[in-house]
Amino acid sequence: MGDPRSYLGGLLTRLDSVHLAVRHQDGRLVAVGHLMPDGDRAEAALLVEDLWQNQGLGTRLLRHLGGHAVGHGWRAVYGLVLPGDERILAMLRRTSIPVQRVEEEGVTTVWADTGDIADALPLRRGRSRQPTRAGDW
Asked: Most buried one in 29, 93, 125, 131, CB count within 10 A?
């Protein structure tokens, strides 16, 4: 993977990418989520510090990323689940959104259509359901 300083700037400034973070009151980042455009789809990635897992941060980040994907008009959101990452698979099993999966060489690719994500988003007060940015909820 190399030194993150050599590629992180390019990732974070990529046009239409979305980056969200959860910061502890002392300023430390404890969770991050990313959406990276990939044609008419977007790749999602989540990282939650071990001590902060099982507290809903990943679920909330994924919900907001889904809202951004709908708002950007991408057709689907996908992610790669590495071997042994049972927590993300369990989180995806609990969602009301249909999630497809394919396993190849130990890596599981999961994806959901943004139409299904839009149907699961909460309605905005006083307005009909429309694709929105997560910050508008």
From this structure: 131
Tell me how far apart the alpha carbons of residues 137 and 129 are, in angstroms, rounded to a whole number.
11
Per the rule left: phi > 0, alpha: psi between -120 and 50, beta: everything else, 65 is: alpha
Neighbouring residues of 111: CB distance < 8 A, sequence distance ≥ 6: 41, 76, 77, 78, 79, 99, 100, 101
* Residue 50: exposure state from Cβ atoms within 10 A (0-12, 13-18, ≥19): exposed
Q: 3-class SS at 107?
A: strand
pLDDT tens digits for range 31-46: 999 999 999 999 999 9
Phi, psi of 59 (to 5 degrees): -65, -45
Three-state helix/strand/coil letters over 10-40: HHHCCCCCEEEEEECCCCCEEEEEEEEEECC
Higher pLDDT, 131 or 41: 41
Long-range CB contacts for residues 117-121, cutoff 8 Å, separation at least 24: 117/66, 117/67, 117/69, 117/70, 117/77, 118/70, 120/66, 120/95, 120/96, 121/66, 121/67, 121/70
Total count of residues recorded for the chain:
137
